[in-house]
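Run log // design_07
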């Protein structure tokens, strides 16, 4: 489990930048060390794709499409 500070260090980005990503991509923001490795991997992917100049609008559209597909498939994202 990771804290927001751990995620910021891993991504080499400020807390303001990471919080902005969470807000724009409608990702949950939690208190304490409750961020999973998958959450960090998701943010790392977003940052990497932005580094390659892929527009954030495109990434958000794809993210919303993926969320809709997961809802249609009734995927449970809660850990067991």
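design_07 sequence
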């Amino acid at each position: 489990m990771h804290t927001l500070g751990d995620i910021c260090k891993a991504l080499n980005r400020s807390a303001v930048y990471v919080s902005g990503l969470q807000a724009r991509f409608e990702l949950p923001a939690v208190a304490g060390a409750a961020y999973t490795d998958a959450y960090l991997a998701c943010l790392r992917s977003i940052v990497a794709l932005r580094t390659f100049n892929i527009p954030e609008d495109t990434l958000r559209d794809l993210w919303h499409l993926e969320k809709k597909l997961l809802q249609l498939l009734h995927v449970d994202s809660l850990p067991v």
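Residues 56-72 form the longest helix (17 residues).
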